[in-house]
Known about the structure:
With 366 residues, this protein is of the alpha/beta class. The protein is built from 12 helices and 16 strands. Strand 6 and strand 7 (89-92) form a beta hairpin. Helix 4 packs antiparallel against helix 5 (131-139) and helix 5 runs antiparallel to helix 6. It starts with a strand and ends with a helix. The protein binds flavin-adenine dinucleotide. Flavin-adenine dinucleotide is lined by residues 7-13, 30-33, 38-40, 53-58, 212-214, 230-231, 249, 311, 340-342, 348-351, 353.
Amino acid sequence: xxxxxxxxxxxxxxxxxxxxxxxxxxxxxxxxxxxxxxxxxxxxxxxxxxxxxxxxxxxxxxxxxxxxxxxxxxxxxxxxxxxxxxxxxxxxxxxxxxxxxxxxxxxxxxxxxxxxxxxxxxxxxxxxxxxxxxxxxxxxxxxxxxxxxxxxxxxxxxxxxxxxxxxxxxxxxxxxxxxxxxxxxxxxxxxxxxxxxxxxxxxxxxxxxxxxxxxxxxxxxxxxxxxxxxxxxxxxxxxxxxxxxxxxxxxxxxxxxxxxxxxxxxxxxxxxxxxxxxxxxxxxxxxxxxxxxxxxxxxxxxxxxxxxxxxxxxxxxxxxxxxxxxxxxxxxxxxxxxxxxxxxxxxxxxxxxxxxxxxxxxxxxx
Length: 366
Ligand SMILES: Cc1cc2nc3c(=O)[nH]c(=O)nc-3n(C[C@H](O)[C@H](O)[C@H](O)COP(=O)(O)OP(=O)(O)OC[C@H]3O[C@@H](n4cnc5c(N)ncnc54)[C@H](O)[C@@H]3O)c2cc1C
């Protein structure tokens, strides 16, 4: 008999398991995948740490979270500075003076502000009714057409005119020559990949991989006093009230034997709407790799249906209302703790998962 059965060896499950074992509790951690780490799993291929489920850059403003993650591994000085490729034209992201200079030839913040203001006025949007109008009212037509429209439509699988304005409340626009994507104080990539970090977190737990909770839920539940569940909350309740929706992704990874530098940057976003993928990741650049080969991954957004990996919760009104019903059931549980992006039906960055897991730990052990 274990103290905790932890369903999901992702970051939430791993932080909980680490904290519980530090307090002398016993944990059995299961995952339906054949590896630990959840979506931040990295696999070493040709001596390059490959982010198997998309680019993962750790960033936070919270010193406690930064110190917390650093106890499990050393981070490098990687700074996320993605670029956009629009039909072969290259632009810096996030939208900043480098982007504006390339778009309009302007060189001062005042000139850039003027262009954006003129375009916003000319568009004449007063109350944005959809994402397209919202974006134009925030940043004008050029940035919208070249850098937002195609990417967003691919990401959501719908025309921007049919997407709610509320998806983008703000678009970060920076009037400095600063290509650093994040405003956070701390960022980096763990030297040697993320999997080693999760391994350390799970070092005192028993792990069983390729085990799906739902294949054997009654037997597995009997193995522990309590369950920490980081799978899909609607599935836990047998989809009683209906199915929560997600966006999915397909990753196509290639080892390029003849090339040692494919795109000169870790992340390149394809912002046109003809290229079927949204980005190409070149993994070695996350760790300033000097290997003779390189590995790239194309990321294709996909509609989600049962059986596909659920990556991004669709937190629209319909799904959020449905989630609230499941959350009500979850609140009544005495021996089940729900956590993580699937258990709480919420998009979390890694630093937010750590905060959330530590809050659960505090609640459980105080
Ligand atoms: C494409 C992409 C890019 C991202 N980039 C960043 C980034 O740059 N920076 C950042 O901070 N965050 C990023 N994130 C978010 C990051 O992945 C999450 O914050 C983090 O992985 C969530 O951890 P988790 O434990 O909640 O979920 P997961 O990592 O999903 O772990 C849940 C685990 O539970 C397992 N599981 C589910 N159901 C069952 C079951 N029935 N039985 C057994 N096991 C089960 C799953 O297999 C999975 O391993 C990104 C996410 C995606 C999708």
